[in-house]
Design goal:
Distance between the termini: 70 Å
Radius of gyration: 21 Å
Largest sheet: none
Helix content: over 70%
Low-confidence stretches: none
């Protein structure tokens, strides 16, 4: 019975390892949350302030 419980775990790990080989894998930072998580908080703050400023300027035009 213990062998049956380990088999799905091995299969999941094998699938995860194959997924990591693909550059478009979601686990390698293709989402916005991972992108922001990789940047520092100062860069994220500057990016947000820039986006807000651009939005205000565009709305005034």
């Amino acid at each position: 019975m213990n062998h049956d419980q380990n088999q799905p775990e091995k299969q999941r790990e094998k699938l995860r390892q194959e997924d990591l080989k693909h550059p478009a894998s979601s686990s390698q930072g293709s989402s916005l949350a991972n992108l922001v998580g990789n940047m520092g908080w100062k860069v994220t703050l500057i990016l947000l302030l820039t986006l807000i400023l651009v939005t205000v300027v565009v709305s005034l035009l």
